[in-house]
Amino acid sequence: MEYATLSNGVNAPLLGIGTFMISPDDTVNSVYSAIKLGYRLIDTANAYMNEESVGNAVQRAIDEGIVTRGELFISTKLWPTLYENDAAVDNTLMRLGMDYVDLLFIHQPAGNYMAGYRQLEKAYKDGKTKSLGISNFYGEKLDILLAESEIKPHVMQLEAHPYCTEKEVRDRVAEYGTLLMGWYPLGHGDPGLVKEEVFLKLADKYRKSNAQIVLRWATQMQFITIPGSKNPDHIRDNGDIFDFSLTDEEMAEIAGLDGTKKYYNATDEEVEKYAGMHLPFER
Q1: CB atoms within 10 A of CB 120
Q2: CATH number at 10-277
Q3: Torsions phi, psi of 224, nearest 5?
Q4: Among this protein's residues, is 48 annotated catalytic?
Q5: Could you say which of 3, 32, 39, 48 is catalytic?
Q6: What are 147-196's pLDDT values in tens digits?
Q7: What string of DSSP letters covers 56-100?
Q8: pTM, rounded to two decimals
Q9: What is the pLDDT of residues 25-45, one digit of tens each?
Q10: How far is residue 102's CA from residue 141's CA, in Å, rounded to a whole number?
Q11: Do residues 162 and 195 lie in contact, with contact meaning Cβ atoms separated by under 8 Å?
Q12: Fewer CB under 10 Å: which end of the chain, C or N?
């Protein structure tokens, strides 16, 4: 496993497992399998409705002596309807069964997002999270958060893959040392991405799968990368990417794909509407 060092000195694994759109039951199995296979980063969120399952899988691995809590890096996200709920962080920790998380995000630039970020800053000072993140922030809302925040985000989570590297946003936060965590790293299942000629060629050269080439590219870009899967074979293969490195010339060739496509293009109005939906445990 390779690690990135956040601006506050915290080390974050460059590869983890994502749990978006994975059911609670499947999450337990996926996360437990991933930990057994050497993964140390697990990403979840209030809105995924599987924080408790992540906690159960982690506790099982700890109880079996596979790993210690200190060896793991757990990230989760506050949903916008909880940004002004003073108990949101404690309730998140309770669902996870943990005293702290390693990275805490606000999930969307919706609602009173600065109130949500103030919650994160307080949690950081109280030792309930080791680092802070923002997810899906762009443009004016990103500028406002950066200007008004006391503790600048250590990580931002955005859609990121060879078709979309978000260079403009990365450049915007570079002065703060903010690193990118990428979702949809394999193009949300788009076969056209992994079948690009450059990945076919490199897969043959390195005797790896096309997906493994894409994930290795992401980690060499210093993107914290969180492919999701409930298939143990895919989880194993996704993690088997650190025994080779792409050359500078190969990285430059892949860079030629940038700017081609984004898979998620919700408008501000759609984000606000979706983010205003209450989660079942709020009722």
Answers
A1: 26
A2: 3.20.20.100
A3: -70, 125
A4: yes
A5: 48
A6: 999 999 999 999 999 999 999 999 999 999 999 999 999 998 899 999 99
A7: HHHHHHHHTTS--GGG-EEEEEE-GGGTT-TTHHHHHHHHHT-S-
A8: 0.96
A9: 999 999 999 999 999 999 999
A10: 24
A11: no
A12: C
